[in-house]
TrEMBL record:
NCBIfam families: sensory_box
UniProtKB keywords: Kinase, Transferase, Two-component regulatory system
PROSITE patterns associated with the record: HIS_KIN, PAC, PAS
PAC domain mapped to chain residues: 211-264
Domain (PAS): residue spans on this chain: 137-210
Organism: Natronoarchaeum mannanilyticum
EC number: 2.7.13.3
Protein name: histidine kinase
SUPFAM superfamilies per the UniProt record, alphabetical: ATPase domain of HSP90 chaperone/DNA topoisomerase II/histidine kinase (SSF55874), Homodimeric domain of signal transducing histidine kinase (SSF47384), PYP-like sensor domain (PAS domain) (SSF55785)
Signal sequence extent: none
Stored SMART domains: HATPase_c (SM00387), HisKA (SM00388), PAC (SM00086)
């Protein structure tokens, strides 16, 4: 193998070339001086194989069997996982040889005209190597993007509706969608029934104003599973014009669950303080006053008022403790048969509800779900008569419990779930608060509407949002 020959400084990015074939020195010396090419040479295929290292940018080979068989030489390079560009350079090479070289990803340049061919060879080497370097750089960046721990999307800002032109592997894993199913579509297909419209409007406004934006959005995977998506979008400009939007997406469901659980815990603490300072203080004051009068007058009626006040305090404490316990995150949910649990709850309350046997099977805590049904059934008994007709059935998105009583006025349908709110003279107002607490601990949402016969209907959306353990 001969020493290297350098030609020119160029832009400092010298191209390292290995030439394998006859007349190596003459070929290297004949290249134009402005070409920043450094040659290493070998006269036989075996020497060429030994000479190739990672620093070689391009391989140029003649075809002069048996010393150098360009076809076998290229096959050996590829078998050794050497991916450098390959150029066959020589005079009057047989068509079959050229075809095989081209079919293997190589290139061919005829050297019949020495001066012109050598000048063209220098240009061909440079353009080939620069193209390969660009391709390698793009592949490296693509691998880095595909290995990124966040979903990455690129939307085309030059086309209406900013369709996606790229998504990385993590985006596929995060959403469950294949590339073929999402390219050409706007990323809004991830939105669903629970996605907040105000957040969507903020996102849309930022894109229309060509501004970066960061939001947390409830999205849905291909199988319908909801997840909280931390979405960051940034415009990419070329000469001042926005050409693309880069999107970065991260599943933050667990963090949101912890945040909401903490918020629920804070609300519980605030409620405890309110109950202790107000709800319990009033009956305690009543009890103290009547007890003082009873001591003076030995009046049984006053003592009865004390007993009633103490009973109310006991009911309030019991309700508050139930809410505290039922709001704890569900750590080991079980697959539940809602129909069976509703039947058990009816037996404990003394009501036989009409139960749809096609009720969905859900994940949850059996004791808490039975408490939920018991509180609803007691509520019906308190407000719809001693023997109400209660139905437990299936509706799109979850299940319902309804009775044939007078129902709940429209203006009171949200307040009935608040702590201490009741329309019954002897009620504590914590039964329906417990119901909502249990529902939220399972990731469900409960709402009130009219039953089929005018009574109260409580609907539970079991797939309204991810469970946050609150």
């Amino acid at each position: 193998m001969n020493d290297s020959h350098s030609h020119g400084e160029g832009d400092g990015a010298t191209i390292e070339v290995l030439y394998v074939g006859p007349l190596a020195d003459e070929l290297a010396a004949g290249l134009p001086s402005e070409e920043a090419v450094s040659f290493r040479t070998a006269s036989r295929s075996e020497d060429g194989i030994d000479a190739i290292g990672p620093e070689i940018d391009c391989v140029v080979a003649g075809h002069d069997p048996p010393a150098v068989d360009a076809r076998r030489f290229l096959d050996q390079l590829r078998a050794d996982d050497r991916e450098q560009p390959f150029i066959l350079y020589g005079p009057r090479v047989r068509a079959g040889v050229v075809e095989e070289i081209l079919a293997s990803g190589g290139d061919y340049l005829c050297s019949d005209s020495d001066t012109t061919a050598r000048s063209v060879l220098g240009v061909r080497i440079r353009t080939t190597v620069e193209s390969e370097r660009t391709r390698t750089d793009l592949e490296r960046k693509s691998r880095a993007m595909n290995q990124a721990p966040v979903g990455i999307t690129i939307g085309d800002a030059t086309v209406d509706d900013e369709p996606l032109v790229y998504v990385n592997d993590q985006f596929e894993r995060l959403t469950g969608y294949d590339r073929s199913a999402v390219l050409g579509r706007n990323c809004r297909f991830l939105q669903g029934a629970g996605t907040d419209e105000e957040t969507v409007d903020r996102l849309r406004a930022a894109i229309e104003n060509q501004e970066p934006v960061s939001v947390e959005l409830l999205n849905y995977r291909a199988d319908g599973t909801p997840f909280w998506n931390q979405l960051d979008i940034a415009p990419v400009r070329d000469d001042g014009e926005v050409t693309h939007y880069f999107g970065f997406q991260k599943d933050v469901t667990e963090r949101k669950s912890l945040e909401e659980a903490l918020q629920q815990q804070t609300e519980l603490q605030d409620r405890f303080a309110s109950v202790v300072s107000h709800d319990l203080r009033n009956p305690l004051t009543i009890a103290e006053g009547h007890l003082e009068i009873a001591r003076e007058n030995r009046d049984d009626e006053d003592l009865s008022a004390v007993a009633d006040a103490l009973d109310r305090m006991d009911g309030i404490i019991d309700g508050v403790l139930k809410i505290a316990r039922q709001g704890v995150a569900i750590e080991d949910p079980e697959r539940l048969d809602l129909a069976a649990i509703a039947r058990e709850a009816g037996a404990s309350v003394g009501i036989q509800p009409e139960i749809d046997e096609e009720l969905p099977s859900v994940e949850g805590d059996p004791e808490r779900v039975r408490t939920l049904f018991e509180n609803l059934l007691r509520n019906s008994k308190d407000h719809a008569g001693e023997t109400p007709t209660v139905r437990v059935g299936l509706y799109d998105g979850g299940f319902y419990v309804e009775d044939d009583g007078l129902g709940i006025p429209q203006d009171d349908r949200e307040s009935v779930f608040e702590w201490g709110v009741t329309t019954a003279d002897d009620g504590t107002g914590y039964g329906l608060a417990v119901v909502r607490t249990i529902a939220r601990a399972h990731g469900w949402e409960v709402s009130v509407t009219d039953g089929r016969t005018g009574g109260a209907r409580f609907e539970f959306a079991v797939d309204a949002r991810p469970s946050v353990g609150s």
